[in-house]
Amino acid sequence: MRILVTGGAGFIGSALVRRLLDHGEHEVLVFDKLTYAGNLNSLASVSDSPRFSFVQADICDAAAVQGALAEFRPDVVAHLAAESHVDRSIDGPDAFIETNIVGTFVLLNQALRYWSGLSGEDKARFRFHHISTDEVFGALGEDGYFTEETAYDPRSPYSASKAGSDHLVRAWGHTYGLPVLVTNCSNNYGPYHFPEKLIPLIIIRALKGEPLPVYGDGSNVRDWLYVEDHARALQAVFERGSVGETYNIGGGAERKNIEVVRAICGILDRVQPRADGVSYADQITFVTDRPGHDYRYAIDASKIQSNLGWSPSVTFEEGIERTIRWYLENKSWWQEILDGRYATQRLGVVRNG
Ligand code: NAD
Ligand code: TDX
Hints:
Layout: E1 2-6, H1 11-22, E2 27-32, E3 52-56, H2 62-72, E4 76-79, H3 86-91, H4 94-116, H5 120-125, E5 127-133, H6 157-176, E6 180-185, E7 187-189, H7 198-207, E8 212-215, E9 221-226, H8 227-240, E10 246-249, E11 254-256, H9 257-271, E12 284-287, H10 302-308, H11 316-329, H12 331-340
Parallel strand pairs: 1-2, 1-4, 2-3, 4-5, 5-6, 6-10, 7-9, 8-12
Antiparallel strand pairs: 9-11
Helix pairs in contact: 1-8, 2-4, 4-6, 7-9, 9-11
C-alpha cells in the first residue's frame, strides 16, 4: 500500500515509518513541517529506501496537502502530525489549536476531496487513520480503565485540542462517509523521544549530573507502551481495522512517575555508574506540580487484543533498559537537540499576574 504519514519525522511517526520500510512492501510519503519536534535524523536509517519520500509542509496549508494527495495517491493517510507536549500547551496553546484542530480539519477536507475522486478498488481501500491519545478521556482515580466508550473529559489545552480533532474525524466519517479509523494510545517511550518528555529528560539530565525534576510528589500514574509496539498496533489497525471504529492502545504497564524515575536511576547505576559511586537517585528533586496535572491514565486494550490480535510484546523493564542503552549509544542524536533547540529546562509553569 501507499501510506502518507503526517508527522513522520516525530517520535511515533518515525517509529512507524521505520517499521513500514523495514518490514514489508509499503511505500511511504512523510508529510512533516519539521517543527522543533520534527527530526530527519530519526529517519536516517530508512531515508535511502526507494520506497521512502519526504515533503516538508504544514497540514494547515490546504494547497500543499492537496498537492501531496494528488501526486502520491495514498491508500492510507496515517495522521500523526500534532503539537504533542502538555507543558508547552500550558505556555502557548495557540499552536495546539492551529495544528491539532485547524490542521486536522484541513487534512480531512482535502482527504475527503481526494477520496471522493477515487473509484472502484482504490476508493474501497482508502483509510484515514487518526492517531490520538488517552488524555482525551480525562483523569482516573485509583481504580478503573479507559475503554472506547469512556466519555471525553479533556483537561489540558493539549488534550482539549486532541479531543477536538477526534470529534472532527468522527464527524467526517459519520456525515460524509469518509472511511476513518481512530486510535487512542497511552504514554509511549523508546528511542528518538524528544527530551522534553519525562523519560528522555530524566535519562539525559541524570547523565549530565543535573537535578531530576519530579512534579508534585511523584505519585501520578501513566500507562507506558514501548513505541515499537505502538507502531505495530497502528499498522494492524489501518491494515485490518473496521471502518468507523475506535481502538484503545495501551501498555498494561502502569507506573507512578517516581517509580519510573527510580527505575531509570537503578539501571544507570548498573550500566553507567557515577564516578563518585553515589546513586543517580541522589539527583531526584521534587518540584512544583504541573498545573491541572491529571492523576492517572490507564487503558483497557481488550478490544484491539480480541479483534485484531495485538498485544504489547515488550515489558516495561525490557523497554526502559533498551531505551536507556539507546540514549547512551546515540548521544549525538540528543546533543544536537540540546545545543540548538531545547536544553531540558522546565516548561509549563503558570505564572499568574
Ligand atoms: P512529536 O511531537 O514527537 O512529533 C510531531 C511531529 O509532527 C513532528 O515531526 C512535527 O514536525 C510534526 N508537525 C507538527 N506540526 C505540524 C504541522 N502543522 N504540519 C505538519 N507536521 C507537523 O509527537 P509524537 O509523540 O510522535 O506524537 C505523534 C502523535 O501521536 C500525536 O498526534 C500525538 O498526539 C499522538 N500520541 C502521542 C503519544 C505519546 O506518548 N507521545 C501517545 C498517544 C498519542
Ligand atoms: O520533568 C518532568 N517531570 C515530571 O514529573 C516531566 C517532563 C514530566 N513529569 C511528569 C508529568 C506526567 O505525569 O511525568 C509524566 C509524563 O509527562 P510527559 O512526558 O510530559 O507526558 P504526558 O503529559 O503524560 O503526555 C504524554 O503521553 C500522552 C505525551 O506527551 C502526549 O503527547 C501523549 O498524548
